[in-house]
Amino acid sequence: MIWLQALGDWLHDVFVAQFDGWIILGFVAQALFTMRFVVQWLASEREKRSVVPIAFWFFSLGGGTLLLVYAIQRQDPVFIAGQAMGLFIYIRNLKLIFNERRRLSAGTE
After folding, report:
1. Distance (Å, rounded) from C-alpha 73 to C-alpha 13?
2. pTM score
């Protein structure tokens, strides 16, 4: 049962001993980031086709930004690079959506 004690020690070190405000921020960020998949899945199920609602991009932006802050604080270069690159994509998609809405709105007036 030494492995069980080692597992218990590891779980304590990872999930309890280092618990602080940054861990809370990381979990909030991950929850926001995960919600984008829930929103996309529910929208697709409702439409019976694959759709990406605007809320997907807002959850991506919010979760990605908070995860980037968390990664910077943790000084994880892989995590920093991945989240930073994603933010450009999320912002660009929102800009494209808003530009299209503006064009459509201007065309109907």
Report:
1. 19
2. 0.78
Residue 106: C-alpha distances to residues 93, 101, 102 (Å): 20, 8, 6
* pLDDT single digits (tens) 53-79: 999 999 999 999 999 999 999 999 988
Please state the rounded mean pLDDT for residues 20-40. Answer: 90
The tokens describing 36, both together, are 């984008």
In the numeric block, which tokens belong to residue 100?
């299209």
pLDDT computed for residue 87 by the predictor: 94
The C-alpha atoms of residue 69 and residue 7 are separated, in whole angstroms, by 30
Q: Please, are residues 56 and 38 in contact by the beta-carbon 8 Å criterion? A: no
Between the alpha carbon of residue 63 and those of residues 43, 54, 109, the distances in Å are 19, 14, 36
